Amino acid sequence: MGDDSTTTIRATFETREATDIAVEHLVQQYGISRPDIFIEPAAGRNSAGLVPSGGDASHEEGARRDAPLKGEIEVSADVKRSQVGAVERCLEEAGALRVSSR
């Protein structure tokens, strides 16, 4: 019988775009259900990241100014213990500033 215990992985991102890419990788590459992935501001204030990205950066009149850029974004998910190393590398490749597990 294999070890089916889970570990919580947390990663922080500078932009919403990098956050979205990371979530897609978790869903598509590791089969983590989207409702089991949590996205929230790392500092507790509503934030779309630290810098404009994606659609916010490519607005016709320059970067949008109505998106709250008040801090990093945190992604967390419970993953199988056997997936921890691969998921940590995946999040780093998606642009995570920091990755931790517990």
| CATH secondary-structure class | Alpha Beta
Mean pLDDT: 82
Largest sheet: 4 strands, antiparallel
Measure the end-to-end span. 23 Å
In which order are the strands of the major sheet placed?
A: 2-3-1-4
How many beta-strand segments?
4
Number of domains: 1
Compressed to H and E, one letter per element, the order equals EHEEHE
What is the number of helices?
2
CATH topology: Alpha-Beta Plaits
Share of helical residues:
10-25%
- Strand portion: 15-25%
The shape is: globular
Give the helix/strand class.
alpha+beta
CA gyration radius, whole angstroms: 15 Å
Q: What low-confidence regions span 5 or more consecutive residues with pLDDT below 50?
A: none
Second rung of CATH, namely the architecture: 2-Layer Sandwich
What attributes does this structure have?
102 residues; alpha+beta; Alpha-Beta Plaits; 4-stranded antiparallel β-sheet; 2 helices; 4 strands
What does this structure look like?
- Helices cover 25% and strands 25% of the residues.
- With 102 residues, it is α+β, with helices and mostly antiparallel strands.
- It has one domain: Alpha-Beta Plaits (2-Layer Sandwich).
- A four-stranded antiparallel β-sheet has the order 2-3-1-4, covered by helices on one side.
- It starts with 5 loop residues before the first strand and ends with a strand.
- The mean pLDDT is 82.
Furnish the topology, listing elements before pairings.
Blueprint: E1 6-13, H1 16-30, E2 37-41, E3 73-80, H2 84-93, E4 98-101
Antiparallel strand pairs: 1-3, 1-4, 2-3
Q: What is this structure, in a nutshell?
A:
The protein has helices at about 15-30, 85-95; strands at about 5-15, 35-40, 75-80, 100. It is α+β, with helices and mostly antiparallel strands and about 100 residues long. It is globular, with a radius of gyration of 15 Å.
